[in-house]
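Loading example: each entry is read as two labelled lines plus one structure line.
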Amino acid sequence: MALSTEESGRLAALLSGQDERVTTRWTEIVTSSLRGRLSQAELRRQVQDLHRAIVSTGEQGIIDLSADSAAELRAALSELSRGRARQGFSATETTVSIFALKDVLAELVQENGGPNALPDYVAFSKLVDEMGLFTFESFVRTRESLIADQAEQLLELSTPVVKLWEGVVAVPLVGTLDSARAQVVMERLLQTLVDTSSPYAIIDITGVPAVDTQVAQHILKTVVAARLMGADCIISGIRPQIAQTIVALGIEFGDIATKASLADALRHVLRLNGVETARRQPRRDA
Amino acid sequence: MERVPILKIGDILLVSIQLDMSDQTAVQLQEDLAERIVATGCHGVIIDITALDIVDSFVGRMLSTIASISKVLDAETVVVGMRPAVAITLVELGLSLNGIRTALNVERGMELIAAAHADELDYQLDDDPDAETASP
């Protein structure tokens, strides 16, 4: 889908002949569709960039969006859509900036008239359609990479391993535990055990909304792997409903210690270590 | 043929496996270890597998066999230094290395053996009729 040399020349001439008017009208149409969420000056700058890219590509000869000669135009389009995607605009609000060029061209072609008016306009409009699709695609690509980045960040954030005591580390699990997360949690916990040479680990599942057989399977695997390495795991933070579900599902935790709260688990570990814990007596004379 | 060295530290024999085990090396290690336990009268064996990237069923069985042999000769076996990746693979394969005690590193392994040995001594003292008053 490319414009012939004559068509490209005419398009470039049409646009560059009255560039001030074209950019102003184009900016006007875009501004009305965005309802003031971008400043007039910024829109004008974006539109001018696009205008310049189209004109310079057109002057080189054939305008073909997939050709090497259109690299500048493609760069301008993806720059625009990347900016919009990051600022949280919708796909329509992004592509409308490109399609606004059609209205401008229609006005210009109508004024100029001539025998080629209709075929020219059809060819120009096809090019604009193509540019719009290209913009849309790069918009989607940007959004997808944003989502992938966020998912990765979430994975990083959601699995901290904290040191509770000398030789005791804890993993507070928050949110649903799927295979990918369970894998990350397991690897990080085991690595921390090695790095800190802690013989005890507490897995706290207070923040896990539901425990099914799959989640239990993941937790059990982690515990068994830690045991193989010579560390003991304690599961804590089992809420009443979850305890009922576990029993109803027939999940066996075997000889793995389970405690109701993180505090109980820590006390249990300290007792195993031979550290005495005592309740401090409240002062009576205060 | 390559041999796995066996080092004596106090009351403990330390075996650090740093090469890929073949049938022959494994058998040789078992023989050497049995001989050394009897000759030195040690009460603990520490097998260090920090250097092993891969632990398969063959190595797993070898570790179990060594543990059983040592048990018969009254020595406690502790496998130390298993890497996280190895542990995960073993769990995924369903190999749980039954009957083998593990510790995070050599230091912890030595503590574990010392504790087990101390328990045994206590137990023997408890059996002693003179020590009746010591425990309820």
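Helices of chain B lie at 23-40, 57-72, 84-93, 106-127.
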